Amino acid sequence: MFKPQFTYTNSLINHLTLIERLYGQLISEKLIPSLSLKLSEENQILATHYSTSIEGNPLSQREVTNILLGDAIPTNKSELEVKNYFQALNHISVEVKKHKSLSIKLALDLHRLVMHRIDAKQPGLFRNQKVIVGHRGAIGLVVKHDPPFHKAPLIRASLEELFNYINQPSDLNPFIQAGILHHQVAYIHPFTDGNGRVTRLLTAYYLLLHGYEVTKYFILDDYYDIDRLEYSDKLHTADTGSKTEWLEYFLEGISFSLKAALERIKDVTERRIEAIKGDKRVLVSHREEDVLQIVLELKQVKTSDVVKHLQVSRQQAQSLLHNLVDKDILIKLGKTKASWYQLKRKTE
Predict the structure, then answer these.
(1) Does residue 316 share a domain with residue 259?
(2) Do 83 and 199 sit in the same domain of this protein?
(3) Residues 116 and 237 both lie in one domain
(4) What is the mean pLDDT of the segment spanning 85-109?
(5) Up-side HSE of residue 101: CA atoms within 13 Å toward CB?
(6) How would DSSP label each residue in 296-341?
(7) Containing structural domain, residue 134
(8) pLDDT, tens digit (0-9, with 9 covering 90-100), for 30-62
(9) Which of 287, 294, 335, 289 shows the shortest CA–CA distance to 312?
(10) Chain segment 251-273, per-residue pLDDT in tens
């Protein structure tokens, strides 16, 4: 029976505490729908870039963005890897809404999507041959990992045992469970190629299943891409016993990704607000920025819209709107209770 070993170190506990605080801060950000959608799209593109980059894909972030947002048909393996991973991300976003537990079918479906039209042996099937994980060094082949099973039935059985364990109700923090899942899938190494991408997709799916909005608010792959060798080394520290060192690294990566996500939200928000302010560079308060986000979304707003979205009194809403009119950013149209506000055009 699968039973992971690890120790609750101070580092582990501190990372868990930080993660919950950062994630709470992240979901408390009140983003208007259009801004939330833009952030989600950017995160999916970033996740695609970083996860494929970890595996050696040479495309830059800009090239990945152009491929995913354009209509061009992929013409080489690198472009196919990017398109395929993006499709797999969309797949888990759809599947998780069905509240399905981790399964063999999901793992095989993800591998089939990741390896679609790429020269791989048996996409969507477990390997049935021996493979080793390593790299070429100055002294020849350096073996880092020899997976425990090399026959498809044994690989299937091992993954089923893992998924049964992960799917059981547990008192463990979901991020601990996600780290255990991440390592164990990589350790089993069920496919001839695409193992890293499928592992990270399954990890993301598990967190989505437990209410953590991966890809919508934050991504998992950016930290690993900073130092791919360290990622590999830390992963393999858990191969022969305790998973503590790997889990500390895994949680450190989650913290890093959450901090980066908060910075992206700040950057996206400031870019939108700056576009409104233009050359005037007037001082706009945080609450007034919230009003401007509502105006960007609704095009025209009434006092009641601000009351509803910001949960403030009518007097506070009127004050915020009047301030933005005084700063020459909004224009008031209509009279008395029927009046509404919209962005002031440069010619007005």
Answers:
(1) no
(2) yes
(3) yes
(4) 95
(5) 10
(6) HHHSEE-HHHHHHHHT--HHHHHHHHHHHHHTTSEEEESSGGG-EE
(7) 10-267
(8) 666 666 777 888 899 999 999 999 999 999 999
(9) 287
(10) 999 999 999 989 888 877 776 66
